[in-house]
Automatic annotation (TrEMBL):
Species: Salix viminalis (Common osier)
Gene3D superfamilies reported for this sequence: MFS general substrate transporter like domains (1.20.1250.20)
Superkingdom per UniProt: Eukaryota
Keywords, comma-separated and alphabetical: Membrane, Transmembrane, Transmembrane helix
InterPro entries: MFS_trans_sf (IPR036259), POT_fam (IPR000109)
GO (cellular component) term, any one: membrane
Name of this protein: Uncharacterized protein
Pfam families linked to this entry: PTR2 (PF00854)
Subcellular location: Membrane
Length: 127
């Protein structure tokens, strides 16, 4: 199996992270109080650092759990021996759980200006 199979998903992940960073910082600046905007920026970068540690922990955990299994290490140095697809299924499962958590938070969130949601804000501007 060629390592070039990873290019599309890594390119898509890079693009999505770039757009997410911009939107997240803009959201923080609009929703945080005026005197807490520097804390908003620092919490964003602290979250990035924490997510890097969690990613490293996840890779270490998968190595430790799958090294002694019958199928072998999922993240082996040789892509032909490894089970990289299983690792991506775990990542996809975590992404689905994260999306569900996001939907819950988005439903309960109240914007700073008091509007209930972006859909209601859009209908108010149209009417």
């Amino acid at each position: 199996m060629s390592g070039l199979w990873l290019v599309p998903q890594l390119a898509l992940a890079g693009l999505s992270e770039g757009f997410n960073y911009i939107a997240q910082i803009e959201f923080y600046y609009k929703q945080f109080p005026e005197n807490m905007r520097s804390i908003a920026g620092s919490s964003f970068f602290a979250g990035l650092a924490l997510s890097s540690y969690v990613s490293g922990f996840l890779v270490t955990l998968v190595h430790r759990v799958t090294t002694g299994s019958k199928t072998g290490d999922w993240l082996d140095d040789d892509l032909n021996k490894g089970k990289l697809d299983c690792f991506y299924y775990v990542i996809a499962g975590l992404g689905i759980v994260n999306f569900g958590y996001f939907l819950l938070c988005a439903k309960w969130y109240r914007y700073k200006n008091g509007a209930d949601s972006t859909a209601e804000m859009a209908t108010k501007h149209i009417v």
